[in-house]
Every structure is written in structure tokens, then in C-alpha cells.
Write a structure and sequence with these properties.
By secondary structure, the protein is mainly alpha-helical. The protein has ten helices and no strands.
């Protein structure tokens, strides 16, 4: 995981300057850009078994689900979690897979822009919101039941697993300081 802070730590020559190191540890704001984050753990290297297990869980969750639906779910969860790293990655993936700019712009307001999405996609987006924001009141029966009308039990279980994994990826990216636009897959 290379981020701007790691480059700063390794490449500026300030390692011997305690004031620079202290400033770097807090994060600094260069005159020409955003704050430079202090170095954080490279999760894939520090916990390879956990990282590989998450990759396997993610792959199993996606198996058999419509790839366009997968990206919509990952985009919506990343929006709700304010994970710019994952949002950039999944909107880029969706574009490469042929998703329209129009629909990508409407994901954040899918309820008001319902005609851009199928009933199945809307059910998945509603479930994504409920699970992602589960602390705000659980997953309402009507949201779950709506999804259950569009997905059989196996698909619904994989959709839930997909929502669980993107929420985990979002938390991993946010807590380890991933930099948007640096796809490190």
C-alpha cells in the first residue's frame, strides 16, 4: 500500500528532522494539495491470512450475481460510508463494464431517480442502505421482504454477503488511509 504519506516518509529526506517527523505524524497540508496522511499499516502485508480470507469472501459473494448490480451495490455503500477510495474504484470498474454515466450519477439519489433502475436493482439498493446503516434501526422487514421478492434465497444470501464485504472493504480503506485514485488491487 503506497500512499502519499509513505512516499513522504521514504522520499523527502526529512527522516532525521524531528520537527518534520512530528509534523508528518500529525499529517500536513502542502501548499499545492490535500493533507498528507501519516503512514498506516499495510493490511495485506501485516495480516495476509485475514486479507486473503476477505478476498475469498468477496469472490464467493459475487459469484452468480449480475456484475452491474454488484457495482451499483458497491458504489452505494461506498457513498454512504464516505469511502472515496472504493467509490473511485467501483465507479471506474462500472464504466469499464459499460455502465452509463447517467446511471452512475443517479446512484446517490436512486429513490428519486427510480426510473433509471430496475425493480430488482432498487430492492438491492434499499437493502444495501439498510445493512450499511444498520445502526440506525436495523434492517426493516419491508426492505428485506422487497429484496426477497426479487432474489431467491441463494442470491439473497450472496447479496447480503456482498454488502458485508463492501462495508468491510470501506472500513479497511478508510482506517488504513487508502488514497483515492490509487487502485492497489
Amino acid at each position: 500500500m503506497t500512499n502519499t504519506a509513505q512516499i513522504n516518509e521514504a522520499g523527502t529526506g526529512n527522516a532525521g528532522n524531528s520537527a518534520s517527523v512530528a509534523s508528518s505524524a500529525r499529517g500536513t497540508t502542502p501548499a499545492d494539495g490535500p493533507a498528507i496522511r501519516s503512514p498506516r499499516v499495510n493490511f495485506a502485508q501485516a495480516a495476509p491470512k485475514a486479507f486473503k480470507a476477505l478476498i475469498g469472501f468477496d469472490a464467493a459473494a459475487r459469484d452468480g450475481l449480475d456484475p452491474a448490480l454488484v457495482e451499483l451495490v458497491q458504489i452505494r455503500s461506498s457513498q454512504l460510508n464516505k469511502c472515496a477510495y472504493c467509490l473511485h474504484m467501483h465507479t471506474s470498474d462500472a464504466r469499464k463494464a459499460g455502465e452509463s454515466e447517467e446511471r452512475l450519477h443517479m446512484v446517490a439519489v436512486w429513490e428519486e431517480a427510480a426510473h433509471f433502475f430496475t425493480a430488482k436493482e432498487r430492492a438491492a439498493l434499499a437493502l444495501t442502505e439498510a445493512v450499511t446503516l444498520v445502526a440506525r434501526g436495523g434492517v426493516p422487514d419491508e426492505v428485506y421482504d422487497r429484496a426477497a421478492t426479487h432474489f431467491d434465497d441463494a442470491e439473497l444470501a450472496r447479496l447480503l454477503a456482498l454488502i458485508f464485504t463492501i462495508n468491510t472493504w470501506n472500513r479497511l480503506a478508510l482506517s488504513t488511509g487508502k488514497v483515492p485514485g490509487t487502485d492497489e488491487r
